[in-house]
Amino acid sequence: VPPALRDISLSLAPGEHVGVVGRTGAGKSTLLLSVLRQVELSHGRLLIAGREAQDMADDEFRRVVGVLPQFPVVLKDWTVRELLDPEDYFNDATIWEALDLCGLGPTLTALYSPPAPLPNSPAPLRDSSGACPDDSDDVTIPILPKEDARTRPGLDLVVAPSGGMTARRDEGTDGGDTNGASNSLSVGQLQQLAVARLLLQAKAPGANLQLLVIDEPPPPEHEGAGSAADDSGAPPLHVTLRKVLPHCAALIVAHHAASIRGCDRVLVMHKGRITRQLVPSDGTLGSQEALGKLLDEAAAS
Description:
The protein is built from 9 helices and 11 strands. By secondary structure, the protein is of the alpha/beta class. A 6-stranded mixed β-sheet has the order 4-8-9-1-10-11, sandwiched between helices. A 3-stranded antiparallel β-sheet has the order 5-6-7. It is globular, with a radius of gyration of 22 Å.
């Protein structure tokens, strides 16, 4: 059986973002799996920060390599807090900082907020603590300073594992019972949760991230490529990563032209080889149509 990757020689400088494009079967996923040590190398070497990747222990490898998957894994009944910080390293303020950097802070707060009262239905009177003295069954919503991250709701939303598409308010939290109600998160917003987790990983004890491996990031702009519900409203991924992790190199597999415009260079793959390298700022990848034409040319060569 011939090797899936052939004649691959690639070096990433600190802070450099390199995109990888190609048709299905070109070798993009195999390249990522090789970098992540999920595929054993038949020959050649993989060096990360000057060290042989195959010689690193698993915990050391996770400290230097961050992964942003195309479909984040969500375990049943995990809250946003558990998804972002499973080891319980961070306080609420740090978690909200990561969410705000990804543009998801207001969205999660809005999902947690109680529904508005029905028309012509006066809101119950509350005292200064937020309690309703005349109705002991009413949900108590304390009046607290907005700037205090400890009082900001949303981290206890439960993220549904079925496709990672929905989140609901957890029963028994300060938000009360949802009575079966659910709130939708788009695929792009779920991916932005994974970005927030990556940003927090960089701050974990002992972390020394040097390389980011990103599989199909959410496009920074949905230029007619999806409905408004798929637009997370977050800032472009490249801008966020360059701001928070400027020293990290990034290897990014993408199918959308918008996702790789922020790359310093782009590799075009075909049949397990890198057939071309280009700089997206030269206008070659200005649209999805232009990217498709480029891949067609690579396949025909």
